[in-house]
Amino acid sequence: MRKQIAAANWKMNLGLEEANNLLDSLVQANIELSGDRETVLAVPFPYLLLAKEKLKGSNNFYVGAQNCYTKENGAFTGEISASMLKSCNVDYVIIGHSERREYFNESNFILFQKIDICLKNNLKPIFCCGESLTVREAEAQNQYVETQLKESLLHLDANEVRNFVIAYEPIWAIGTGKTATADQAQEMHAFIRKVLSEKYGDDVAQSISILYGGSVKAANAKEIFGKPDVDGGLVGGASLNASEFIQIMQSLK
Ligand SMILES: O=C[C@H](O)COP(=O)(O)O
Q: Residue with the nearest Cα to atom 7 of ligand 1?
């Protein structure tokens, strides 16, 4: 079975003390995630090393960054490179979150470069895709998401592609309390898998975890994650509360 993943995206939230407390609560809960299930905590850059330290010894817990730059190193004040993240033993990097696309003008081509530099540094990208409300209302979501995949990912070969995770996040469901229905999520996830299968074959497509993101909470996680092509979630707001996130982790298939 492919990996089932509960990924927390803390976004730009929490001070050091709060981050520390949340990590402690998650570790102390001592949740045993078996076999193919895992948790990723994508924390702000200043807390990456703290998270690595705290999660040492917790099985199936991984640490992720929320972004990286397109270049290896150099005079790019304020940016963080994939090789720096690797040197801190970070495992995953979120690439192409809709907030990065919207507020920092990250195009599909910039994301193509970020994906490549992550793979070169043995970091696993969590590649985000998803449509706006306008696109959904025009019923053009499949075409829109397919273009995002084609322009940023589908240049990779089959071996490279096995090393990433995709997160489908309809923009209209992020932080709005408005969740895609489990059936809408399943429909898009199946479509993404079909696009992957056409390019890489069914074996590869079946091995890639596709997460759903957008107002996932303890109350709806089980239903959404229960769908056959939904392999867990990328969780924003609800990941900032330990007991809520623990219930989400426990809702993985
Ligand atoms: O990365 C997470 C997504 O943007 C979802 O955020 P949310 O769970 O607060 O809606």
A: 236
Domain borders along the chain are 4-28+36-251
Which helix (DSSP H) or strand (DSSP E) does residue 41 occupy? strand 37-42
- β-strands 4-9, 210-213: how paired? unpaired
Confidence of residue 21 (pLDDT cuts 50, 70, 90): very high
Of all protein residues, the one whose alpha carbon is nearest to atom 8 of ligand 1 is 236
The reply to whether 98 sits in an annotated binding site is no
Catalytic residue of the set 99, 106, 169, 189 = 169
Classify domain 4-28+36-251 at the CATH class level: alpha beta
Tokens (6 digits) for 49: 């090393």
What's the first-to-final CA gap in the chain, in angstroms? 10
- Residue 18: active-site member: no
Instruction: Establish whether residue 102 lines the binding site of ligand 1, counting it when its CB lies within 6 angstroms of any ligand atom.
Output: no
Please tell me the predicted confidence (pLDDT) of residue 149: 97
* Whether 169 is catalytic: yes
Q: Measure the CA–CA gap between 216 and 34, rounded to whole angstroms.
A: 22
pTM of the model as a whole: 0.96
**Cα 206–124–128 angle (5° rounding)?**
70
Mean pLDDT, range 59-67, rounded to an integer: 94
> Across all residues in the chain, what is the average pLDDT?
95
Does ligand 1 come within 6 angstroms of the Cβ of 213?
yes
Q: How far is the CA of 131 from the centre of ligand 1 (A)?
A: 14
Q: What's residue 180's pLDDT? A: 83
Element (H, E) at 94: strand 92-95
Burial of 48 (0-12, 13-18, 19+ CB in 10 A): buried
d(CA 218, CA 245) in angstroms, rounded, equals 7
Cβ of 234 less than 6 Å from ligand 1: yes
